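Re: duplicated header lines in exported structure tokens

Our pipeline writes sequence and tokens for each protein into one text file. With two proteins the header for the second block appears twice in some exports. Here is an export where it did not happen, for reference. First protein block:
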Amino acid sequence: MPLVKANAQSLRGLKCPTNKAYEDFPIEGAPGLSIRVSKTGSKTWRAQYGLFGKRRILTLGEFGELPGQLSLVEARARCSEVRSLAKVGIDPRAKQDAALEERRTRSERTVARLFEARVTDLRHRGRSESYIRNMINSFERNIIPALGQKPISEVTREDLEVPLMRLASEGKKRTYNDLLTIWQGLTNFAEVENPARKIRALRIPSRQIKMSVSDIRKVLSITGGPDDPFRSVGAMAVDLAVCTLVRSGACSQADINDFDLEAGTWTVPGDVEKTGLPFTLSLNTRAMMVVNAALKKRAGLRELPQSNTYLFPHRDNPDGHIRQDSLLQTWRRANEAAGLGGTRATLHDVRRSAVTHLVMIGHSSRITDKILQHRTGAAESRVATIYLGHDFFKERKEVLDDWGGILMGEESVLKN
């Protein structure tokens, strides 16, 4: 086959013989470079080289001037590089395969794809749907448009500062801080260095909502009586969260095997607790009524498998527990039904309000912090907690008993 002149016009005019599926045309002045023209009209650059005494061919790419295609000048340079590598004993095919694999990996590890995987992982871990929904909305609105298709390993601090500074200028400090937290979780999940590690969170004035005892009682009364086995699972879980002051996430995953009704205690496992440490609390009178009512309701669920040991089983998932966002929705609706929707008080506000009332009637703030499972300073570090022999169970029991009495309307507790 005669050499083809090295110009674009000659290359565009090449055609495959009608009796062949393809034809290779060597390029004039470019040793080892040829272009394969197929019956369909496609044109592909090929480089011939010798390695360890054997003749080999490497496909370089499609001929053309469009993005992703190779022009004549680019093909000649690539062919020259291939033959130079082969001369020193390096297999160009292996290098090209490694480059392709790197590009494929980079395309799969974009910010958008990893964020989708992160969301799936959080759902498997039982994070509330409301939390995930808010996270998706914030990330897709502020990060995905600019950085979604970028490999996460190539994202820089400057890339992240653009949307963050815009949020700061708009006064959206909470969204700013939420995005920093989301990005930290995403980089940990992807096992890459976090370029935003030195970006400081913005200071936000603390949100202080204090509920009165009468308002808390009013909201609870909307959900039903503590010993009512016919009220919803969500209402029972909310009641348990309020009368024990345990976080809603731990209440949603309460397991019947963690309760000792004879001793009147509940041991919350570390894997469902924010601190990661297990703790045992005393169940006051109201909490015992709620737990017994929940057990009666469980006993009446015919389709509940024996393998499900959750105190508050999921309605549609036979093996699962009630979602944390179900508790939050139940509380919000009861709050609105009680005429308190304007306060936007949450279950976390109940915890804060409860300890305020308990301290006001003479209980130690240190003991109320123990009840809330707060850890502050070196004295409350994980190591200190392990080595501290006294867990203040008796003192915590007295506080929780008083809180249960307050919720049950025992005014004498408030007067003590």
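Second protein block, exported in the same file:
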Amino acid sequence: MHSWAQRALSWASGLFGDAQEAPASGRVSTLPPRVATLLTETLLSEVLCHGGAPAPGRPAADVAKGAAPSNVFGTPVSETAADDERGAVAVASGLTAAGVRATAFVSMEGAASARSHLVNAARRRLPLLVHADAAAEHAGYHAVADTGVALAMARDPQHAVDLCLLGRRLAEDALLPVVVAWDGADDDAAVALPDHKLIAAYVGAPDDQVDSPVAAQTRVFDGSRRRLPRWFDPDRPVAQGAGMAGATQDAALAGKSAFFDAHAAAALATAAAALKQHIGRDVGPLFDHKLDGSRHVLVGQGAIVALAAEAADTLRDAGQAVGVLGITWLRPLAGEALAQALAGATAVTVLERGAAPVGAEGALWRECASALRGRDVKLLSARYGLGGQLPAVAELERVFANMAGAATAALYLG
């Protein structure tokens, strides 16, 4: 079986002529979003991990046998197949601990099943990147929100490619696992893939020596460190702390939160600003669309945000004061910025994908309610995708109409 890496670069070869060269940054190409993500990861990673069945986005075209492709840093890219998706996250975590730039491709349900591995990776400060397919529903996405990982969902195919770069940079700057999800269709789309220079300048090689960005890392690494620390190195065995339990472990985890995790939001802001300088696109924690003067706002995450923006454009043209707020990064959540963005709204409807929990509001609704506590705004909810499909734009226009009229607290679309 030929590796994903070989297949991904062969796919690009049919489009651009050379399987070892990515198209130039900013050059628009037509690719399925998951293939574009896979190709981007092939160019910057060392090992691609999956479990069980082939991951979404695996190119179907066969390729000729040949040597393993190399990433932009000249390192051969290999594929590792675990027994299941939980195993794929475990394998990627182990490789990351050894200083190998590894990426896991799983379903969102698979990522949720690997919750214990993600918790362990966060506690061990492993800069792991996991790509998750969240097309079924968002329950698995929210299930990993409190594992200690940074968590993002792309709103469109280009955004998914951009989050490959940002997620990798954030993971390695802040030394924490990052999960990036995509819940849209895998139809061909126009995307601008990164070139070698962009990846080398923005992401860098795994063995680069970098300055520790925060004081806690400086204390651990004595100033500078390998971009991907070798926490586990058979050539240089060393004990990393003693076994802990009870009050001792509680104190250690509290210290990790205070000295490492507290800097995650600042690390994300810095990494997002640096990427915007390269590509000219905003990849920050929130995406606002026509919020100026908006009285009624839809809040969502993932592919629904682009559809909601279309609905808002139509109603804006008709003179209605409506807008859209997309939440790209659920962790770290920019709660204060979210509240400020919705300061002028009188009614907000939170769009949630999947069935409602028993006797409770949805997870995204609860996040928004916490951020808006004490604000004079009516917070409603609308559920979609129970059958797997995204709603039509016309249905989202009716959600806006509900806020202007009856203001039914909970709607179901589709």
